Amino acid sequence: xxxxxxxxxxxxxxxxxxxxxxxxxxxxxxxxxxxxxxxxxxxxxxxxxxxxxxxxxxxxxxxxxxxxxxxxxxxxxxxxxxxxxxxxxxxxxxxxxxxxxxxxxxxxxxxxxxxxxxxxxxxxxxxxxxxxxxxxxxxxxxxxxxxxxxxxxxxxxxxxxxxxxxxxxxxxxxxxxxxxxxxxxxxxxxxxxxxxxxxxxxxxxxxxxxxxxxxxxxxxxxxxxxxxxxxxxxxxxxxxxxxxxxxxxxxxxxxxxxxxxxxxxxxxxxxxxxxxxxxxxxxxxxxxxxxxxxxxxxxxxxxxxxxxxxxxxxxxxxxxxxxxxxxxxxxxxxxxxxx
Length: 339
Ligand code: IPM
Ligand code: MG
Known about the structure:
Elements: H1 2-16, H2 29-35, H3 41-49, E1 52-54, H4 71-80, E2 85-90, H5 104-107, E3 112-117, E4 125-133, E5 136-142, H6 147-161, E6 167-172, H7 178-191, E7 198-203, H8 204-213, E8 220-223, H9 225-239, E9 246-250, E10 256-260, H10 277-289, H11 294-309, H12 327-335
Parallel strand pairs: 1-10, 3-8, 6-7, 6-8
Antiparallel strand pairs: 2-3, 2-9, 4-5, 9-10
Helix pairs in contact: 1-10, 1-12, 6-7, 8-9, 10-11, 11-12
The chain binds 3-isopropylmalic acid (IPM) and magnesium ion.
């Protein structure tokens, strides 16, 4: 579906007389096989040279037991490019309210944005590893944050909340974790600079419950890396399918990385049936955040909505008896509706 997202970008370029230059690189499992690393130095350099990176997906069972993990390539890109903020918007489409396992009335008014910290926490903390000790195996992961890392992500979340409904939920596990206590302290301190935004602290376990129980109550959620990873897969259920959701990974410059929040979906990979909308909407976020082409971004978003309103469905969002489109057909349906 990455190729299909690229075709949508090309259509947008043609319509608006832009020229986009694409430089295709391998990442993840395919790159391990072809280049010996999930993201090679050349690929990283190419990403640094680019204005934006459109990312597909990384893993697969074939590489699960190898010495190199495909996912580590993505983690390398995020870290090396300084992409500390991962934005994951969730807004169910009216046409798909019946697709979610949640009752449609629960989904009325749902419009939330998860701001996930992306370059800290358990994903990168040291020490980490595995060792033999006293005849057993001992493992360790470290949840590490500095106040600097917390402040920059929380500050961004306040800024993003301000022009929305002005509600920010900071999610932590401050009843147990030291890192969460600092997170809460810093969030409260930053909040004093944003009096127009109502800050609420919420424990991650109860947040997981409320996301399903009363999702419309949320506006912006800010949280650390692992909590954000888990809560956004959960939140995708609100939209009807994991295949619909895009994400933007941003840092201090306009260079960003854009990827659907779903992974490589090994069970359906290569069959041409995956939903391309997560990838296509990621391309829209790329236009918005890295290229500052807001009108073009909106053109893609409205084309997606129009295709869904017209009843276009891939397998993941089709109801019984509805016609099912393949990946390419769905992307074509979106392209045909670009204004
Ligand atoms: C995501 C994915 C990644 C993550 C994996 C593929 C490393 O689950 O972007 O949510 O955990 O960040
Ligand atoms: Mg994830």
